[in-house]
Amino acid sequence: MSNPLTGEVLLQKVKDLGNMPKEDKARACGYATKTKGGVDRVNMMKFLNALIDAEGIELDGRNKDANGQGGRSASYRIAVQANGNLLIGPAYTKQMDLHPGDEFQITLGRKHIKLTQLNEED
């Protein structure tokens, strides 16, 4: 299948597949690809997210931007880059309504970092 099923078509297909294992359902709905090595790979996250979208469930309580563009959503996970930096991307700064030049105080904990936004008076 070239395009994975979505919406009502996806929901109906999953219902029709009955008690089949979820990986097989995902495969039957078009959420599987072949790797370069010829191995069948099922993308369960895309399948499950498509099911959630088809059901109309809003998990994070936020809608797309007013202009209809969703963009990348925040995963709330980051990794230290090879140069030792931590990059907090635009999904987070936009959600927090931050702008270039906003300043923060950094407080280091044992396994966490706390950012406290500084006011212009600080």
What does this structure look like?
With 122 residues, this protein is an alpha+beta fold. The protein has a two-stranded antiparallel sheet. Strands 3-4 form a two-stranded antiparallel sheet. The model has no long low-confidence stretch (mean pLDDT 82). It has a domain at 7-55. The chain is built from four helices and four strands.
The portion of residues assigned to helices is 25-40%
Question: Structural class of the secondary structure composition?
Answer: alpha+beta
Low-confidence stretches: none
Our measurement of the CA-to-CA distance between the termini, rounded to an integer number of angstroms, reads 58 Å
Placed side by side, the strands forming the largest sheet appear as 1-2
Q: C-alpha Rg, in Å? A: 21 Å
Largest sheet, described in full?
Answer: 2 strands, antiparallel
What overall form do the CA principal axes indicate? elongated
- Helical stretch tally: 4
Topology:
Blueprint: H1 7-16, H2 22-28, E1 32-34, E2 40-42, H3 44-55, H4 90-95, E3 104-108, E4 113-117
Helix pairs in contact: 1-3
Keywords: DNA-binding
Domain SpoVT-AbrB: 75-120
Pfam families: AbrB-like
Short description:
With 122 residues, the protein is α+β, with helices and mostly antiparallel strands. The protein has 4 helices and 4 strands.
